[in-house]
Amino acid sequence: MDQIKSIMYSLIEPLTKPETYQTLLSNLIMIVIYIIVAWIVLRFINKGIEQFFKIQNKGKKANKKRSATLISLVQNIVSYVVWFIVLTTILSKFGISVEGIIASAGVVGLAVGFGAQTVVKDIITGFFIIFENQFDVGDYVKINNGGTTVAEGTVKVIGLRSTKINTITGELTTLPNGSMGEITNYSVTNGEAIVEIPVSVEEDIDQVENVLTDYFQSIQTNYYLFISTPQVVGINSISRDEIVLSVSAETIPGEGASGARILRKEILKLFKQKEIKTPKPMMLQYDPNQQNNA
């Protein structure tokens, strides 16, 4: 009984002394100061990293996406280092031995190693993604896992543990790097815009092709994403009411779909301007009396 009282007294006694609260308040204030300073330092360092890569790649258009990827990576690593220093400093303020924690990390690591396998896999995969240049920030990619598409869109952030992808419908998807299976990068090679244009069978198809060919010269001048002048490939199909022409053009990487939309709009405007007819559905009137007479 006396031992229990002694233990309780040793626990309660510090709470009755004003010095305890003064020390606690002082430590809390210092913690807030450390966090604020770390946040300010990170802001300056991140700005410095951005400026460094901008100077290094000034005028080199081909390296801009790669620079954005490396900026994200370096900022990610610096953030981990700064916050680790802040954490160890805070622990030392409360009398917790950081050296002891680091020394026991090997023993604790064995206990949690199996649980941390996923995190380690994510980090290793992140290094391979970045240094093998599988994709960069700004690339349009499709990510599959086990044959199923898990994300498709524009890469916004590449980190050591995860990657953020902005989908075409506006959602921001965060994927652990280790969960990525097949990666399709649409921004590496030039794209191709292919559209099918229906024309009425009443039109002179040779004349339509000549009108389109002359007009396509201005499209490449007006739209930066076309690398080559669009051209009429030929007749794709013929039916009772329409002739379908196939038109294609080479675009910059990842802009094939955008190029196709531009071609459709411009060709529609041209057809209205030149009064080129497009197919119209034919309406047949059903006469039941005619069937009865037959």
Q: What do these coordinates show?
A:
- The termini are far apart.
- This protein has a 5-stranded antiparallel sheet. Strands 6-8-7 form a 3-stranded antiparallel sheet.
- A hairpin with a 3-residue loop joins strand 7 and strand 8 (242-251).
- The longest helix is centred in the N-terminal third of the chain and has 39 residues, at 18-56.
- The protein is built from 9 helices and 8 strands.
- It is of the alpha+beta class and 294 residues long.
- The chain has helices at residues 2-12, 18-56, 64-93, 98-103, 105-112, 117-131, 205-222, 256-274, 288-293; strands spanning 140-145, 148-158, 162-167, 172-176, 182-185, 191-200, 231-238, 242-251.
- Residues 76-117 form the Mechanosensitive ion channel transmembrane helices 2/3 domain.
- It is a multi-pass membrane protein.
Which overall shape is indicated by the principal axes computed on the Cα atoms? elongated
Question: How would a textbook summarize the main sheet?
Answer: 5 strands, antiparallel
Low-confidence stretches: none
Q: What is the rounded Rg?
A: 33 Å
Compute the number of helices.
Answer: 9
Report the β-strand fraction as a percent range.
15-25%
The number of E-state strands comes to 8
- Coarse structural class: alpha+beta
The separation of the N and C termini measures: 116 Å
What's the order of the H and E elements? Answer: HHHHHHEEEEEEHEEHH
**Mean of the pLDDT scores?**
78
Residue share in helix: 40-55%
Give, in spatial order, the strands making up the sheet with the most strands.
4-3-2-1-5
